[in-house]
Amino acid sequence: MITIFDDIKIMPSKTYRTFSNHVYSGVQVYSEYSASDDLEFFVLDSENFEVFSKRYGEGEYSFLIALYHSFGKSDSYTFRATNDDTYYAVLVNAADYEVIASFEQNEEAYYIVGAIGFFSLFFLLIGILIIIVGLTQKSKSVETQEPNGS
């Protein structure tokens, strides 16, 4: 896993903080926060983040389709991206006072992207196998016989 975010911030009253990251399909992402007081925590895809940002201004953001939602002083969530998309971790301070929050996000360091990556790896492995077999195979000698003649 590689660290994408590792941040500590003071969140003023009635604000939210977002952490966005473009993630390829199939990549696993781990998010974790801890705070001095209760926060709301969302993980959203790009489509639902647009809905959140619009509804937050209207005060009706609680009716979202989130990948994950919780409320508390700390939490963590791991998911595997279903699509190539920008995913958002959102911390919301709905309190009338500031809250100190730390946030960390990690994702898988190595991954093969799509069918092209899979087939490239497949053909590379086949090529290595052919080289190994070619180097280890003993060369066959052909014996020739001369006709018996007087």
Strand residue content: 35-45%
Taken from the alpha-carbon principal axes, the silhouette is elongated
CATH topology: Jelly Rolls
Number of domains in the coordinates? Answer: 1
Strand count: 6
The secondary-structure element order is EEEHEEEH
Give the C-level CATH assignment. Answer: Mainly Beta
Number of helices: 2
Describe the structure.
This protein has 150 residues and is an alpha+beta fold. The chain has a single domain (2-107), classed as Sandwich (Jelly Rolls), CATH 2.60.120.680. It has helices at 46-58, 114-136, and strands at residues 2-11, 15-23, 28-44, 68-80, 85-93, 99-107. Strands 1, 2, 3, 4, 5 and 6 form a 6-stranded antiparallel beta sheet that branches. It is elongated. The model has no long low-confidence stretch (mean pLDDT 84).
Summarize the structure.
The protein has a single domain (2-107), classed as GOLD domain (Jelly Rolls, Sandwich), CATH 2.60.120. The chain contains 2 helices and 6 strands. The protein has helices spanning 46-58, 114-136; strands spanning 2-11, 15-23, 28-44, 68-80, 85-93, 99-107.
What keyword list fits this structure?
alpha+beta, Jelly Rolls, 6-stranded antiparallel β-sheet
Fold topology:
Elements: E1 2-11, E2 15-23, E3 28-44, H1 46-58, E4 68-80, E5 85-93, E6 99-107, H2 114-136
Antiparallel strand pairs: 1-6, 2-5, 3-4, 3-5, 3-6
